[in-house]
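Input structure tokens:
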């Protein structure tokens, strides 16, 4: 089960379906059903039904499920036009506001910087079932959660925190490609120079972070290569001087 952050649990999903810049609308899946995630959770269809009824788009509630940025309640970037369960998962259509935060988010969608969304929710413990698997592992089936908000998430630092661990694996080539692609996206956004000063500052900080992760990976690869060379030298057989003296 996911860890607690800001008073509730978070789960992320990269699933943007469509963007209409003219209408300022974006469609996405906020959650998928019947998929085992990294928290060992499988969310079942119907898990959001009560939340959608109580605080969904068509509910009479004045505390509707919010459309935020980075799970920050001070950054409400728009509102949900549609929140509904279908056979695949929780489908959502959000409309971005015309505030500076909404405008910055629109630019980030347009330039490919926002490509992930995350939900903030609370487990309903009476509707969670632990399932033991035949291989000795286990997972949880989630039949109901209390949904508070869905957030647009700029690719996060947590995406690259395990650079050193990944650098030792066979996935280092893919990681270099991913980092390079993200650096290219941020660089182009900075060149375009659109949005508020705060947006451009955040982009600059993200670019510095990504560059540092790329340098970390390069240094790790260099250290691995140097270690391998040293091991090769250590494993070479010692020269037999006695054999040489006998020949002479």
């Amino acid at each position: 089960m996911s860890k607690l952050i800001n008073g509730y649990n978070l789960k992320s999903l990269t699933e943007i379906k469509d963007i209409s810049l003219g209408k300022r609308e974006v469609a996405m899946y906020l959650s998928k059903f019947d998929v085992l995630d990294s928290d060992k959770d499988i969310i079942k269809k119907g898990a959001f039904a009560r939340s959608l009824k109580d605080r969904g788009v068509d509910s009479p509630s004045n505390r509707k499920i919010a459309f935020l940025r980075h799970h920050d309640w001070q950054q409400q970037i728009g509102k949900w036009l549609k929140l509904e369960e279908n056979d695949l998962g929780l489908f959502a259509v959000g409309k971005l506001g015309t505030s500076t935060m909404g405008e910055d988010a629109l630019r980030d969608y347009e330039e490919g910087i926002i490509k992930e969304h995350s939900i903030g929710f609370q487990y309903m413990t009476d509707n969670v079932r632990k399932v033991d698997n035949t291989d000795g592992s286990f997972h949880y089936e989630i039949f109901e959660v209390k949904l508070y908000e869905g957030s647009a998430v700029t690719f996060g630092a947590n995406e690259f925190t395990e650079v050193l661990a990944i650098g030792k694996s066979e996935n280092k080539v893919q990681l270099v490609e991913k980092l390079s692609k993200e650096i290219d996206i941020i660089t182009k956004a900075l060149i375009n120079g659109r949005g508020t000063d705060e947006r451009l500052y955040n982009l600059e900080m993200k670019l510095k972070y990504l560059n540092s992760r790329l340098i970390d990976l390069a240094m790790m690869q260099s250290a691995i290569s140097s270690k391998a060379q040293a091991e090769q030298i250590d494993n070479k057989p010692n020269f037999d001087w006695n054999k040489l003296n006998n020949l002479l």
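The two ends are 74 Å apart (CA to CA). Residues 4-154 form one domain.
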